[in-house]
Amino acid sequence: MVFEENSNQKQQLQISVLQEVERELASLSNSHFSMIFTWILEILEVRIQEAETAWLRKKQIRGDGGVRVSHFLLAIVRQIIEVQSLLSVFITFTAWSLSEVIRYSHYALSTLKICPSWLTYFRYTAFIFLYPIGVGPGEMWLMYQALPYIKKRNLYSDFFNKFGISYYSFVVAVLVCYPLLWLKLYLHLFKQRRSKLKKKERKKKLKK
Description:
By secondary structure, this protein is mainly alpha-helical. It is built from eight helices and no strands. The termini are far apart.
């Protein structure tokens, strides 16, 4: 019972954070990158609906680590105009977008029971090349390039001073831990891939 209450509180908090990020990004509508951020808002809106649906069903939201990483990186891009035109930002958003297009296309067609087998295979295979590209030359490179600006401007000092650290130190710590945390998720996705594709194969054999 306690676990269920904690889970619900976590999911409610996630929904609140998603909505707050959406409101903050909306304030960027007059910037040079308004088109990009408008696009991101649409993705966040889908994430909000997904989180609310999971909360109503009292289920643990899977993949919420990806949501947290998205918020973290957007917090950097939003505050530092100099990094917004960097290649690392383009790589990051491209990898995220392709992953989401594949994932939600698979969800939609699976719900309608018309999902082709090749899309299922692609759904559980595309991450093999998309994730390393998105994480290495994308997310980690972006954080590294942003470090001088974060240090110079002392970003989010009001919040992080409460914990006796700077946002710069926090990002450095994230960069150090990032490969290990990412590798754990990456290996988990391979296990998930084997499981899903085996089930798909068994269903094909049963139909024959």
